[in-house]
Amino acid sequence: MDGHCLCGAVRITAIPSSQAASACHCAACRRWTGAAMWAVEAAAAEVRVTGEVRTYRSSPLAERAFCPACGTHLWIRDDGKDYDLMPGLFDAASEFPLSHEVYADRAFACVRLAGSHPRASRAEYENSHPFVEGDAR
Ligand SMILES: [Zn+2]
Ligand SMILES: [Zn+2]
């Protein structure tokens, strides 16, 4: 799928790992996105990026990338791992269903998501994944 930021300076081509998007309600994602973060996963080898990208190291484990010209959020990526790309960059992602939510018990009221998809609470997620104390405050 082909995508781009709001101003078009950054272009991304990616083959997603699955045709679905996940959601994260951790405090860092809430703050970064405005309320919740949606992500389409793609292996690093399946992502091509052109244009200048700025990154912000949001934790010792991960960086978040954005376009320095228009500010569009592009991805979050744990070091050396797959990309979690912002679905809004890609018109082809517009019909991707929600695969699962993490930090579901931390969701703002305005983005509590209906449906029977899998949900992990903060405790459930942090029991099974690396995380940074304070990142999810
Ligand atoms: Zn841009
Ligand atoms: Zn998060």
Automatic annotation (TrEMBL):
Task: Quote the InterPro entries the UniProt record gives.
Answer: CENP-V/GFA, Mss4-like_sf
The segment(s) forming the CENP-V/GFA domain are 1-104
Indicate the secretion signal residues: none
User: Is-annotated flag, keyword Transferase?
Assistant: no
Q: Name one Pfam family in it.
A: GFA
Keyword set for this entry? Lyase, Metal-binding, Zinc
Task: Give the family this protein belongs to, as stated in its UniProt record.
Answer: Belongs to the Gfa family.
Q: What is this protein called?
A: CENP-V/GFA domain-containing protein
Protein species of origin: Rhodovulum iodosum
